[in-house]
Amino acid sequence: MTEYRVVQTVEAFRYPVGKVWGPYLEEVDAQQRLATLKNFGGDGVIESGEFGTGVALELVGAGGPGGVMASV
């Protein structure tokens, strides 16, 4: 399955050159990430290929609002 990712080529908003965003299953999602990056004065390139599993976020901690986001 082809996936897409954005590799940052210009430092922006606390993120260094080389930061990888993704992988995304849809190219349009990578294009949106690149547009957002450019809005913060950065830039990047979209790469396609098979990059493995992306990072998933889930709520951890017990009870109600105010859970903590953690990468898994």
Your description of this structure?
The chain is an alpha+beta fold. It has one helix and five strands. The protein has one helix spanning 27-39; strands at 3-10, 20-24, 43-49, 57-60, 68-71. The strands form two sheets. A three-stranded antiparallel β-sheet has the order 2-1-3, covered by helices on one side. Strands 4-5 form a two-stranded antiparallel ribbon. A hairpin with a 7-residue loop joins strand 4 and strand 5. The protein is globular and about 30 Å long. It starts with a strand and ends with a strand. Mean pLDDT is 81; it is low at 67-72.
Terminus-to-terminus distance: 22 Å
Helix count, DSSP H or I runs of 4 or more residues = 1
Strand order of the largest sheet: 2-1-3
Portion of residues in helices?
Answer: 10-25%
What is the count of β-strands? 5
Q: Report mean pLDDT, rounded to a whole number.
A: 81
Portion in beta strands? 35-45%
Q: Encode the helix/strand succession as letters.
A: EEHEEE
* Rg: 14 Å
Tell the overall outline.
globular
How does the major sheet shape up?
3 strands, antiparallel
